[in-house]
Write a structure and sequence with these properties.
By secondary structure, this protein is mainly beta. The protein has helices at residues 32-43, 50-53, 119-130; strands at residues 2-10, 12-13, 59-65, 71-79, 97-106, 109-116, 147-167, 171-172, 176-182, 189-199, 203-213, 219-229, 234-235. It has one domain (2-74, 100-235): Alpha-Beta Plaits.
Amino acid sequence: MKVLVFDIFGDFGHFKKFYTTSSPLTFSFPPPPTVKGMLGAIVGVDKSEYLNVFSSNNCKIAIRILSPVKKIRMGINHINTKGNYWIPLKKKNHEARTQIRTEFLKNPAYRIYVYHNDRSIFDKLSEYVMMHKTVYTLSMGLSELLADFKYVGVWEAEEYHMGECEIATVIPMNIVKEYGIRFEEGKRYFKEKMAVDMKQGRIVERYEDVLFEAQGKSIYAQTMVYWEVENGERIVFF
């Protein structure tokens, strides 16, 4: 099958963890629904429709970490705009702004692999990425964190079952065989629980534990299914 491959990167990123409130933390890579939002921004699918257009029934996504995960904390000023106006000065018992300590990714970079069963959508997405063109501005999670991207290619991908090999992408644990991960020296393994499937209204249909190597190195795993692309990378789709 044909797979669009492109890299996305930026100075900073923030993909908020769903269980954090007062001091927002970030995932180490964009969850699949966030990547679908990026695809929608590229081709101009409205935010009320992109989860349908790029639903799991129509679209497969794989995510590879290209640069080591680095996280920093910075304060962000939140301005009080209740009542549709901004209070510019501090008043008694009322602060004009509140500073929130927020976790950011520094110099994040990812390789995205995309398959879509609608050829017209796939071709339009491939054309826009190749031309470095978007309908809406692309960001790394927050509108203030602008992102850039680079076309890599449209590659053939071949499906294999019950394989044991080096996987270049992050791995959803539901496709890993029991005791199917070989932990190797010099690699940093982490697992994060995240939403991998949403429907309209941003209602989560499925959460999944996802395994990744924080330096961007491959993971030796025994999976129920994997795909091999033209350059020899072995990947796993959500």
